[in-house]
Specification:
It is built from 12 helices and 12 strands. With 365 residues, the protein is α/β, with parallel strands linked by helices. Bound molecules: 4'-deoxy-4'-aminopyridoxal-5'-phosphate (PMP). 4'-deoxy-4'-aminopyridoxal-5'-phosphate (PMP) binds next to helix 4. One of its GO terms (biological process) is L-histidine biosynthetic process.
Length: 365
């Protein structure tokens, strides 16, 4: 018989850069009677028809899903005027981001993105083995696309553009984006992350759905987590050239998209359901606009907000302000030493939040 070796005290050798990587942060749970405004979630309960579709799909979970989600891809393809092969579905758009980065970049390669931007990007790039090149946002907290184009080198394999940008809220304009694309070499993958697209109300903003088919190197990513209120089942999608999507299908962890998730997404796209969901999005976008206007009035230098969240540039006071908000019952997302992101959630949270924030404002913030 084989005996296990004596423990030598030697540690398993892990990749040093992975061992050093902080895990993805989730917001703290909301205190009793408080509000969780830290994850840009949709505050509305799932529609009854969506819950029913998910419950029905749950009766089949003894079987593996059709993880290619063909029916959902067909639905989305119809909507965006492409073929189902030009649509990929993933376990949240964060999973798709990982797949595309793995498909394009590895050790020795570079991935360019703005900073601050979505917290997951640095980790995903590190996991791929590639190097992050972070380009500071402009003073107005929007992407500096000129500087991002300047940052592209022979080693660049992908550029991520986040519009509206999480966590600062500013969207890239269509003009800016097209000028940028004209400067990006066509063999460099551009990932346009539009997780918050449905909340955009500034008509000058880029809308990736109008650019599909225009560039051989452009992939547009969207999600059911935010506007469609399905964050808990994990489903997102991307649209782009088949060859790039095939590479991302190859880097996927097999069977990551569940039948429960695709059933929820299909139900959310049913005509009546979608009308209701987009009505909620309208209400949230309006609430965001009012919330930002009230904050500006108080003296906060809140940048333009096109997602379902606003950005408070609290600087060195970030942790202190976030703690005060937490004590008042509001879980927010602090990014010291830059600022605090506050999701636009339950309508009844706004007045109290504004009362608390009025006492915390300081000139120049
Ligand atoms: N992109 C951005 C900019 C995001 O903010 C998020 C969610 N916080 C995602 C992608 C991922 O969303 P999901 O994986 O839930 O689709």
């Amino acid at each position: 018989s084989v005996t296990a070796p004596e423990p030598t005290g030697a540690r398993v050798r892990l990749r040093a850069e992975i061992a050093a990587l902080p895990p993805y942060r989730q917001g703290r749970p909301a205190p009793a009677d408080g509000f969780k405004l830290s994850s840009n979630e949709n505050p509305f309960d799932p529609l009854p028809s969506v819950q029913a579709a998910i419950a029905a799909a749950a009766t089949e979970v003894n079987r593996y899903p059709d993880a290619t989600a063909l029916r959902l891809r067909e639905r989305l393809a119809e909507r965006f005027g492409v073929s189902p092969d030009e649509v990929i579905v993933g376990a949240g758009s964060v999973s798709l981001l990982a797949q595309f980065i793995l498909a394009a970049a590895g050790p020795g390669d570079e991935v360019v993105y703005a900073w601050r931007s979505f917290e997951a990007y640095p980790g995903l790039v590190t996991v791929s083995g590639a190097t992050s090149v972070q380009v500071p946002n402009r003073a107005d907290h929007g992407h500096d696309l000129d500087a991002m184009a300047d940052a592209i080198t022979d080693r660049t394999r992908a550029v991520i553009v986040c519009s509206p940008n999480n966590p600062t809220g500013v969207a890239v304009t269509a003009d800016e984006f097209e000028r940028f694309m004209a400067r990006v070499p066509s063999d460099v993958l551009v990932l346009l992350d539009e997780a918050y697209a449905e909340f955009v109300r500034d008509e000058a903003s880029v809308d990736g759905s109008t650019l599909i088919g225009r560039y051989p190197n452009l992939v547009v990513l969207r999600t059911f987590s935010k506007a469609y209120g399905l964050a808990g089942v994990r489903i997102g999608y991307a649209i782009g050239p088949v060859e790039i999507l095939d590479a991302a299908r190859a880097t996927a962890i097999p069977l990551g998209v569940t039948g429960v998730a695709t059933a929820g997404a299909l139900a959310a796209l049913e005509a009546d359901a979608e009308v209701e969901l987009l009505r909620r999005v309208d209400a949230l976008a309006e609430q965001r606009t009012r919330f930002r206007a009230a904050l500006l009035e108080q003296g906060w230098a809140v940048p333009d907000a096109q997602g379902n969240f606003v950005w408070l540039p609290t600087g060195e006071r970030t942790a202190a302000v976030a703690d005060r908000l937490f004590d008042a019952g509001f879980v927010t997302r602090a990014f010291p030493p830059d600022g605090i992101r506050i999701s636009v959630g339950e309508a009844e949270s706004v007045d109290t939040l504004l009362r608390v924030l009025e006492e915390l404002v300081e000139p120049s913030q």
